[in-house]
Amino acid sequence: MFGNQNKKFDYIEKIKKSATITDTIKLVRSISQEYGYSYFCLSEIPSPDAVFRPHHYDNWPAGWTSFYLEKELFKVDPVLRALRSAMLPLDWSDAFRSDDSNDGAQMMRLASSDWGMRLGYAVPIYSLSGTQAALSFCADQDDVDPEGKPALHLISMYAHAKLEELSRRAITSVRSNSTLSRRERECLQYAAAGKTNEQTSIILNITERTVRAHIESATVKLGARNRTQAVANALRLSLI
Fold it and tell me: Which of 23, 66, 95, 202 has the most CB atoms around it within 10 Å of its CB?
């Protein structure tokens, strides 16, 4: 027991000393896997009438976020609904069970299972600024460490605070150094709406290769690791 406690605080110390967003994300991924969870996601929790934004940081299966947005699963996601009023961490299974008679909840449960995310544990996080977020961990197999949940609860708080701190620094730097072109903003706007590169190319009447180039250029300018983070940074900076 005491060994597990020491491990938890060792993780927290590593997060506190992390110097970059990339290093922090690697730590969160390593920690989640240590407790048996294959995937994690840190995202804001929007109100029901607000625009749903892509996840800030995650290692979801490739294609899941686009699928989630394209199918508008955020409108029927029982975990998202439960997190809006949750004060304590919750198991996905409890959220699905509470909405068991809802066709949308069943669709979300089956979809997440098909994508290798059958089990989940979500930690609600409230910031001083009033925003609400959640750090979710999920796995396909039933071999997660049950004793890891209290540790992940505390670790999530520190990870969120560290990422917020590092993100503010990065955004301040980006704001003073980046200027997106009109096409880059348009491509990011459609990406934020869940459109694929092919769909965006048809809408803008340009080639898919050009869309990809604009998004890659914007990603570099915004100091982002990938398309999803580029969209999130652009939204934070009110560039789109």
Answer: 95
Superfamily of domain 2-172: Transcription factor LuxR-like, autoinducer-binding domain (3.30.450.80)
Domain 179-236: CATH architecture, name and number where available? Orthogonal Bundle (1.10)
Query: Quick one: 39 exposed, middle or buried, by C-beta within 10 A (0-12, 13-18, 19+)?
Result: buried
The token pair at 127 is 């910031």
Q: Cα–Cα distance between 1 and 207 in angstroms, integer?
A: 58
pTM value? 0.69
DSSP tag of 222: T
Per-residue model confidence as pLDDT tens digits over 58-97: 888 888 988 888 888 888 899 999 999 899 999 998 988 8
CATH 3.30.450.80 positions along the chain are 2-172
How far apart CA 191 and CA 6 sit, in angstroms, is 42
* b/e burial code for range 156-189 (CB count within 10 A of at least 16 → b): bbbbbebbbebbeebbeebeeebebeebbebbbb
